[in-house]
Amino acid sequence: MGVRCLYSLWLCLGVAELGDLVKTHENWRLHQAINLQASENIMSAEARSFLSTDFAHRYTLPEDLVPGLTGLKNAYRGTKHTDAMEALSERYARELFRSMYASLKPLSGHLAAFMLLQASCKRGDRILVISAAHGGYDGYMPGFLPEYLGLTVDFLPFDDRSWNVDAKAAADAIIETKPRLALVGASLILFPYNLRWLRGACDDVGTVLGYDASHVLGLIAGGEFQKPLLEGVDVLSASTHKSFPGPQGGLFLSNRKDLFDRAMQTFLWRIQDNAHWNRIASTAQVLLEMKEFGGVYARQVIANSKALGKQLDMWGFPVKFASLGYSGCHQIHVDQTALRDGWGLTSAQFADRLEANNLIVDAVGRIGTSEITRMGATEEEMQSIAGLIVRAARGEDVRSEAAEVRSRLRMAFVFPS
Ligand SMILES: Cc1ncc(COP(=O)(O)O)c(C=O)c1O
Prior knowledge:
The strands form 4 sheets. A 7-stranded mixed β-sheet has the order 2-10-9-8-7-3-4, sandwiched between helices. A two-stranded parallel sheet has the order 1-12. A two-stranded antiparallel sheet has the order 5-6. The N and C termini lie far apart (about 50 Å). By secondary structure, it is α/β, with parallel strands linked by helices. It has helices at about 5-30, 45-50, 80-95, 110-120, 145-150, 165-175, 195-205, 215-220, 255-265, 275-315, 335-345, 345-355, 370-375, 380-395, 400-410, and strands spanning about 35, 100-105, 125-130, 150-155, 160, 165, 180-185, 210, 235-240, 250-255, 330-335, 360, 365-370. Helix 3 packs parallel to helix 10 (about 275-315), helix 4 packs across helix 9 and helix 10 (about 275-315) crosses helix 14 (about 380-395). It is built from 15 helices and 13 strands. It folds into 2 domains: about 45-285, Aspartate Aminotransferase, domain 2 (3-Layer(aba) Sandwich), CATH 3.40.640.10; about 295-410, Aspartate Aminotransferase, domain 1 (Alpha-Beta Complex). Helices cover about 45% and strands about 10% of the residues. It is globular. A hairpin with a 4-residue loop joins strand 5 and strand 6 (about 165). Bound molecules: pyridoxal-5'-phosphate. Pyridoxal-5'-phosphate binds near residues 109, 113 and 186.
């Protein structure tokens, strides 16, 4: 066999191996597994199809984004449909979230958060955020984004019993310490924030009120959880793929022209260059779906979280906040101490036992209901899924029953094709 033949064989094997991996993953995660990770969701076929359109290959850079380009109209050509699509998607976002200004350019929730911090603060400023110990996003902790931007971080007072910012104490802290930015929103989130108290305090001392809606964007899109921009938030950043069932990406909203303009001015070439227009087209499709079906979707997500929490509790599985109805959003929290002491499992071991049964939860103690709700699950399925979780955690093999539940689920909240 010649060298060229061997090389072709190696190439064919490589192509087959890669193709097999993609297919096997798709088959498992889309058709066999029940996904209960709070950070993930699933797109409609229409939104998915936009990801592989020609927009995936293109650039656009209109002259209003770069003063030096004056007279060129755009640094690129062939951009008229891309620019029109971006304008349309921003309009959909503004209308759905009731914000005056919107950008879908950030490639992720993290970069949207970067944009929010950079728009609101200057080097040397102090910010108040929710600590990671209370579920706050790690990216806001000292040593990460704030260090990069030269910001000092303090923590908002938090009430463990209600798993929420202690609004009155937080308002006092804002008035006393006058931070540049007070930022709510978290990764382990359960209940809406009392924004009225925070808004009043921010007004008194000229602090920017920010909201990281990465986890709860899909609920906000449906008019549930809370309405941050109507409740007085100045700037909002978010992921578009957690409770909001879009492609992985970011969103930045504001009702303040000065902050939005500053965000856009500091965005290009500091945070990002091109914006991935296929993702934006796909996100726009999901914005339309949420405008039409978001209310029913969001209410069902919350109802499912409450039902799942209650049923798990009835089976004796340790979930938190029973007295508060377990959850007001798309996640419920496992009591990790009780799991270790009563069941002999760390949260990673619990996640491993479930994964072996095609039930996917994260290893940090959250169980999420967004994706299964998107797949049409209601309170009835929550009864079955709670039973499967408990039995899998005990070490039983529930794969065939999980497959049976999965086979009953069908994508919901989409336009008829
Ligand atoms: C509250 C919060 N903000 C921001 C992010 C970052 O989002 P992304 O993964 O879209 O960059 C996360 C990630 O989990 C998050 O939980």
